[in-house]
Design goal:
The protein is α+β, with helices and mostly antiparallel strands and 493 residues long. The chain folds into two domains: 304 residues, no CATH class; 175 residues, Zincin-like (2-Layer Sandwich). It has a six-stranded mixed beta sheet. Strands 1, 2, 4, 5 and 24 form a five-stranded mixed beta sheet that branches. A hairpin with a 3-residue loop joins strand 4 and strand 5. Helix 1 packs parallel to helix 3 and helix 5 crosses helix 8.
Amino acid sequence: MIPLLLLAACSSAPTDTGPTGDDTGPAVDDGLGDVFDLETTADGVSGEFTEPGTYIVVLFSAATEENTKYGYGEKASEAAESAPMEPLPEDDAEPAIPVAFAAEGDHRTFEVYDGSGYTTIDAEAVKVTDELVIWNDLTTFNPLGDIPTETLDGVVGNFEDIVLPRTRQVFGEESDVDESGKVDVLISFTVDDYGPVAYVSWCDIGDLAGCNGHGNGGETIYMGIPDPSSDYSSANAIVEIWAHEMNHLVYAWHKYVGNTQEDAQENIYLTEGMSELAQDLTGYNNGNQYIWASAIDMRDFYGDEDFSTQGVSINDFLRGGGGYDSKRDGPLRGGGYLFLRYLFEQAGGFTVNADGSFTDNGGIAFLHDWFDAPELGPDCVEALTGRPVEDVAFDWYTALVLTGRDINDDPAFNYQDRVQDPRTTFEFGVDPYAVIHGWLTLSGPPVQPLAEADGRIRAGGVEYLEVTVDAAGTVSIPVDAAALPRARAFRIQ
């Protein structure tokens, strides 16, 4: 097994989905943008809408099954659907023996994964600084050529000056299991053969679940050779990748090794979401924008409805230990990031000062608590927020669809405004209506007219439904009871 290589029976119901004339459900004074909860009934959800207008209903499933969809509306009585995630591959190679201290020109061996199994390669130290040792694979044929020296120098400078200090402040100190005081970066075409742009192995810093004796015994980032024509070849892109991978190492050291729970298993998309958050909070929320955009709405670009909030479930990034989902990888990474960013902001976030330093308003302390807490996944959410995870998720899904509409200013239902980083010039945070790199214009999560809705909701997921009410009355939406539905609404016009 290659663990920790981190990159990521229904109830019958009526079919009437329009307003009804009965007087069930709570009456609410629903002004423009005011959020009110609907009642959960035996047949679904129901609420009295006291003002004519157009509303958005946030329909949330609190069910905990993974990769399962339930019916609502006309499909409320249909059977649930499910599909498994793809597992990680397996292998049983032996580890290489590490060398702790290095000078430029020194050689050492690394045990690396090339997509089919482990192999041992010889590497040369081509750059040694106070914080880093850059190693070049001398064994594996490299058809793409070396990273240009100027680009590599820029990556190393910004990683040492910006990313590492911010990582340590915001998330915590990395380990130093080889007592070298440095982080190793191995640049090798074996990573290209494997498939990701870069990865780390938690087995390098501890004998964690599934390691089976593998590991190079030091803090190592494994970096592929960027195609010179790709978006991954620029200095900023590579720094962002290293920021992502560095966070994986810090997380494993604090969460698992530090809590003496080396056998712990946590959802891969929770850890990927945390490393996406690291790209943001260390100042390189650049390529990461495409990841979180795919969890909001990039259906037109990808031609797939799963590249939106409809493809995201809290269960898919909070519960279970599974592997990567090759079909929904982007939305699940983005969903994990968006949820963790929301928690960071709800804890207070931070203030970005004019010189690029941070003043903690509670968000940094929250992240340190998260990294150091022994609880995993949903248990950690509940331990640190003091609230049931389904309540937090319900508020988060509401914030995704309310942020940027300028009709509600409740901090619980809105992301904070984006702020430019004075050092990197990228923007911290989330905007569901952002224009990304001048060509991708977001228009918020997809909202379906109730009469045209697809009638399927993911367990732990959300559907945003548009309802037009011509006169005061009750809107009832049938939902499969197994979905454990909850709903709230707000008027948009």
